[in-house]
Amino acid sequence: MPSLSTKLVTKDYSFAPDKLIGVTCYNGKIYFVVYNPNAGFWLISKDGLEAKIADPLPNELNEDTAPSIVHWTASPTGRYIYVVFEAAVEDGFKLYRSWIDVEGRCMHIDVIAGYSPSWYKGDVADRVFSKMLGSSVLFAVSGDKETDKAYIIDICNQKERDVGTPSGSGYFPFVSDKCLISLDDLDIIVGVHLAGSDFKIFKYAQAKYVGTGVSAGGSPRAGIGNGIFHPYKGLVYVTGTGGVVDTHNILAFFNHDGHLMTLTLDSLPDVPETTLDATPGTSLVGITNEYHILALIHIRGSDSDKDARYVLAYLAEIDIENKKVVNAWKLYQSKAHYFEATNNEKCDIIKGPVIDLDNKKIVYIWNRHNPSEDRSANNYVEYVEIDVSDIFDNIKYWNDMCPIKKGGKIRLPTKLTLEVKLL
């Protein structure tokens, strides 16, 4: 059966997978480029926290800001990584391009463009959340929680469009970069921070929200999860609910036809007798020979008593046609207050784990921690490896939306969206 091992990278800083800037393989070693608004840009490998390669971005907003990747690629040798990303800073949204030299332990960053909306100031700016849809267009939300709105913003052309809110009454929308092409529109999966609310589909051309009726006890966090191409179902996205204490939550699967199936977290084998939350992240990593989806699922307890919370990791084989879990392997369980793993609620869809075909492993980092006044304290940033050699021959396709290592080189995925323009 699959097995999971961890190695401590650092307890000094918080490096969650949503802060991932780049991935490469150089001289046989996998490197992650990660970001912390206080500590700057660092190289992480199995050997630990290797080197600081750049200072923090100037005028960074807060520790919750997650850079959104527009494009990333690695050189043939793996020594260099080129990344274009967006980040929210004090004076607005900015597009950056960067060169990273793994051997030289350095990073060069330039600003491509920036845009500061009139509403982007004070408390509003402290709570900004954005996802890139195209090379210049982003889907953003901000404001106080009672009057939050969503915006489509074209950074390079200095334009914006107010597209309201999924709930109709504010209360912090959750946008995503999960795009599906329908017959007459571009559909984007969204949610709102409101317990029991359902996932919505944002119809881009019509600028309206359509309910799906899919909900659970927590709020629909559209950023959770990634996507995979299924031979018979097309592009399938997984997302999930959580963020509300003492609630039961789900993973929900969608494609261009709508809702495919729901997986209740407490239906997984050997879960603690507690309420569970999907916000730590789920990655769809492969398609089996039987055309089932292989999912890497991370969950945590949602107990109001934080000292009673567990964090767990599973690998599950899901029969999407018959709407059921065929196999599930419990890989990890520990006590922790919070848990941020691959494809968590703040991640881009392409920030999945590395599929290491050379060693038959799934490789990534996670951050589990207990709350403290100092956000850099009580963290356990760990390098994670899952040995999938026992099930390797039963995987027909590995997910091209994850970084894939083969022959000592990593191929980085590109966001599978249209080139979206502001209407």
- Top-tier CATH class: Mainly Beta
What's the architecture, going by CATH? 7 Propeller
Q: Percent of residues in helical segments?
A: under 10%
Uncertain regions spanning at least 5 consecutive residues: none
Q: Overall pLDDT, averaged?
A: 90
Tell me what portion of residues adopts beta-strand conformation. Answer: over 45%
Short description:
This protein is mostly beta strands. The protein contains one helix and 34 strands. The chain has one domain: Methylamine Dehydrogenase, Chain H, CATH 2.130.10.
Write the layout of secondary structure elements.
Blueprint: E1 3-10, E2 20-26, E3 29-36, E4 40-45, E5 48-54, E6 68-74, E7 80-89, E8 92-101, E9 106-115, H1 122-125, E10 129-132, E11 137-142, E12 149-154, E13 159-162, E14 173-174, E15 179-181, E16 186-192, E17 200-203, E18 208-211, E19 219-221, E20 227-230, E21 234-242, E22 250-255, E23 258-264, E24 276-288, E25 293-301, E26 310-319, E27 324-335, E28 338-340, E29 354-356, E30 361-369, E31 379-387, E32 395-398, E33 404-406, E34 409-411
Parallel strand pairs: 29-33
Antiparallel strand pairs: 1-31, 2-3, 3-4, 4-5, 6-7, 7-8, 8-9, 10-11, 11-12, 12-13, 14-16, 15-16, 16-17, 17-18, 19-21, 20-21, 21-22, 22-23, 24-25, 24-32, 25-26, 26-27, 28-30, 29-30, 30-31, 33-34
